[in-house]
Amino acid sequence: MTNMPVKPLPDDAVDMAAKAIAAEVAHHIKTMYPGAAEAVAWESCKRSLAGVIRNGMKRLGDAAERGEMESEIKAMRSQRSREDAMRRDMAEASTPAVVFAAIQHNQSN
């Protein structure tokens, strides 16, 4: 295979890619699920999507450079599960003491 010259990536390549992907995701949500877009502060939601995508890309890129991308993906999945469980437990909590107990329980998992 012939090596071809490659133009170096700009310093903000991850940011540029994340913004482009976030725009695609936001367009998809607004087109396919207009009720969801109407139910939230849409501009804030789009900025949040861009941030989450950028942070995920950076996290996985750094992990890939260390040769740990698969384990990082598993860690991200585990973190989402813990956060979902905490939100579920807190939604069912009836007193501040139960909320505190739910937080402690989910942080120890």
Automatic annotation (TrEMBL):
Residues 69-91 are annotated as: Disordered. This is Uncharacterized protein. It comes from Paenirhodobacter populi.
